[in-house]
Design brief:
By secondary structure, the chain is α+β, with helices and mostly antiparallel strands. Helix content is 38%, strand content 23%. It is built from 9 helices and 11 strands. The strands form 3 sheets. Strands 4, 5, 6, 7, 8 and 9 form a 6-stranded antiparallel β-sheet that branches. Helix 7 crosses helix 8 and helix 8 packs antiparallel against helix 9.
């Protein structure tokens, strides 16, 4: 037997892990397909992935399935209309075949300088779920290129509605995305003001201590607080600038994006990130 070590191409990944076939069935149909498994009578509809032989969700009769195929094709066409067919990069996150984050990173025309050598690029994320965990929506954030931080600022717009409901049908509506993109400079100005707010050692350590007292479910893990200040110092040296509120935010954000000890799904990471950002805004802005 020959075992192939060839990694799947990006197109194969998209087809297998994002655009796989999914069906909305009544629970009796799903029960029959699954070999007579008893499904709770409180549900009337089931979301099933035939290629994976996987039951993804049970819901009531009003549940409306929006497939990733439908969302992806409409989103890709909208990105091509806005930025050209080669004006963006695409990747996605699949959480247990149930929750999906489709990320379109916009190329050169949407890069911004927060400071000399500190560049961020625009990322438009479309969210969909097959388990009812997330509403179909979009958000606009940023990817920070320094140290490949991957920071995303969700305050800009984290719950853009992209589905327009009429009496007899629903259709995609990307007008709110276009409106948000037209005011990107407002958010960049906020970042620059954070970058201009220089911090003393005591201000940084006091803020880190304040974060450690948070009782929010998505509070930053107390065990990682000691690792925040070294990133502020490292990036201050890298960018040849004094420690500031922008670098403090990104020191937390770096761990949220890259530290496996965070151990949360992407939706919870977004909440954690927004809590830190809002605290820094209210404390130093």
């Amino acid at each position: 037997m020959t075992v192939s070590n060839t990694k799947p191409t990006n197109e194969e990944r998209i087809n297998n892990d994002l655009l796989f076939n999914v069906l909305q069935l009544n629970t009796q149909q799903a029960s029959n397909i699954l070999g007579g498994v008893n499904l709770s009578k409180q549900y009337q509809t089931a979301i099933y992935a035939p290629d994976k032989n996987k039951l993804l969700h049970l819901a009531g009769s009003n549940y409306k399935l929006i497939s990733n195929v439908e969302l992806y094709e409409n989103a890709k066409n909208e990105m091509a209309n806005l930025f050209g067919s080669n004006g963006f990069k695409f990747n996605f996150v699949n959480e247990d075949d149930r929750r999906f984050f489709m990320k379109f990173t916009i190329k050169d025309d949407s890069k911004f300088d927060v400071n000399v050598g500190d560049v961020i690029e625009t990322v438009i994320t479309f969210k969909n779920s097959y388990d009812g965990n997330m509403k179909l929506s979009a958000s606009i954030g940023f990817n920070r290129l320094v140290c490949s931080n991957g920071m995303t600022a969700y305050e800009l717009n984290n719950n853009i509605q992209i589905l327009k409901h009429s009496k007899n049908a629903s259709e995609f509506d990307f007008s709110e995305i276009r409106s948000s993109l037209s005011v990107m400079d407002v958010q960049i100005i906020k970042y620059k003001k954070l970058q201009e707010r220089f911090l003393t050692y005591n201000e940084i350590t006091d803020f880190i201590e304040q974060v450690g007292k948070s009782k929010e479910r998505e509070a930053f893990p107390k065990g990682l607080l000691k690792d925040v200040f070294p990133i502020v110092e490292r990036e201050s040296s890298l960018l040849n600038t004094a420690p500031n509120a922008w670098l403090l935010y990104n020191a937390f954000n770096f761990h949220i994006n890259h530290n496996v000890k965070i151990g949360l799904d992407l939706k919870s990471k977004e909440k954690m990130d927004s809590l830190i950002y809002e605290d820094i805004q209210s404390t130093f802005y």
